[in-house]
Amino acid sequence: METQTIVEALFLGLLEGLTEFIPVSSTGHLLLAGHFLGFESNGKTFEVLIQLGAILAILTVYSARLLKIARDLPNDPKARRFVIGVLIAFLPAVFIGVLAHGLIKAILFESPMLICTMLILGGLILLWVDRLDLKPRYTDAMDFPLPLYLKIGLFQCFAMIPGTSRSGSTIVGALLLGADKRSAAEFSFFLAMPTMAGAFALDLFKNRNILTFDDVTLIGVGFLAAFISAVLVVRYLLGYVSRHGYGLFAWWRLVVGTVGLVALILMR
């Protein structure tokens, strides 16, 4: 196995973990990086399985909180309502994801130009929303009204278009619907748990006949890199956005999308 390939796997794993929970589109970054590096694993095993590193990262960081919610479920109406709210927010993505999975993977995921365009468009939207003088009505993700959970879930469906960002869609939706910056980001974490686990399971099932484990070392390197980098992001993101907002991520999207477009045009 070439050293260069291991370095690429490490880079892509870090990229997955660093971008999964911030509003810049981890899928968009991975697809663009893979396109320009010419990186391909057998049967797309690598791309599917390193997502598990990011899923385990958020479960690890939020383990104490999740256990508390689970313990409180029988006796605490607030805990029960929150779990129901997360499930309500998750349902639109389930419906669209199952129906349109083939179309999304076969057509939208094969268009680097579309990814760059969505990175730029999403960056402009995020920059606009971050600069709005919004008056938050909700400061705790566990206290959102049930209809608000559903509306945020509908916003999440925009992330079916690669380059849009799952966390970006949910955060922008929550901000526009009255959440403050911290609770918007935190709810995107909670919603990520069933959404990412569901998408991972669906990918695994759809690709069950072509997945191979020939590149176990590459998968292990990418998985570990994704796990470690995602843990760091989840631990520090809420504090950062509470103090500084989302402007940095908006500009990052604009830079990456623009550089990607220029590179694609020059390579034609």
UniProtKB/TrEMBL annotation:
Annotated coiled-coil segments of the chain: none
Substrates-to-products reaction catalysed: di-trans,octa-cis-undecaprenyl diphosphate + H2O = di-trans,octa-cis-undecaprenyl phosphate + phosphate + H(+)
Key words, A-Z: Antibiotic resistance, Cell membrane, Cell shape, Cell wall biogenesis/degradation, Hydrolase, Membrane, Peptidoglycan synthesis, Transmembrane, Transmembrane helix
Transmembrane intervals: 48-67, 79-100, 106-128, 185-205, 217-238, 250-267
Enzyme Commission code(s) on record: 3.6.1.27
Presence of keyword Transmembrane helix: yes
Gene Ontology MF annotations: undecaprenyl-diphosphatase activity
Domain of life of the source: Bacteria
Membrane topology: Multi-pass membrane protein
Location within or outside the cell: Cell membrane
Extra remark: Bacitracin is thought to be involved in the inhibition of peptidoglycan synthesis by sequestering undecaprenyl diphosphate, thereby reducing the pool of lipid carrier available.
Function: Catalyzes the dephosphorylation of undecaprenyl diphosphate (UPP). Confers resistance to bacitracin.
Record-stated family: Belongs to the UppP family.
Protein name (database record): Undecaprenyl-diphosphatase
Originating species: Phyllobacterium ifriqiyense
Gene assigned in the entry: uppP
